[in-house]
Amino acid sequence: MLARKNLQLNEHGDLHHLLAIEGLPRRIIERILDTAESFVGINEREVKVVPLLRGKSIFNIFFENSTRTRTTFEIAAKRLSADVVNLDVARSSTSKGETILDTIANLTAMHADMFVVRHSESGAPYLIAQHAAPHVHVVNAGDGRHEHPTQGLLDMFTIRHYKKDFTRLTVAIVGDVLHSRVARSQIHALTTLGVPELRVIGPRTLLPLDAERLGVRVFDSLDEGLKGVDVVTMLRLQNERMSGALLPSASEYFARYGLTPQRLALAKPDAIVLHPGPMNRGVEIDSAVADGAQSVILPQVTFGIAVRMAVMAILAGATR
Amino acid sequence: MSEHLLPDAELLFATLKERMAPAIAYDARLVGVYSGGAWLADRLAAELDGEHPVGYIDVSFYRDDLATSGLKATVRSTQIPFSVQDAHIVLVDDVLFTGRSIRAAVNTLFDYGRPASVQLAVLVDRGGRELPIAADYVGAPLIVARELMLALDRHDDGTFVLTTEPWKAR
Amino acid sequence: MKIAIRNGRLIDPASGSDRQVDVFIAAGRIVAIGEAPSGWHGNRDIDASGCIVAPGLVDLAVHVKRGTLATEMAAAAAGGVTSMVCSPDTDPVLDEPGLVDMLRWRAQSFHGARLHPLGALTKELAGEQLAELSKLSLAGCIAFSQADKPIVDHQVLLRAMQYATTFGFAVWLRPEETHLAKGGVAHEGEMATRLGLAGIPSSAEIIALATHLELARVTGTRLHVCRVSTADAVEMLREAKRRGIRVSADVAVHQLHLTDVDIGHFDTQCRLTPPLRSARDRDALRAGVLDGTIDAIVSDHTPRPDGSKQLPFAEAAPGASGLETLLSLTLRFADAVGVDPAQALAWITQRPAGVANLSAGRIALDAPADLCVFDATAYRIVNRAGLRSAGKNSPFLGYELPGVVRATVAGGHIAYELAA
Question: Does the beta carbon of A47 lie under 8 angstroms from any beta carbon of chain B?
Answer without folding.
Answer: yes
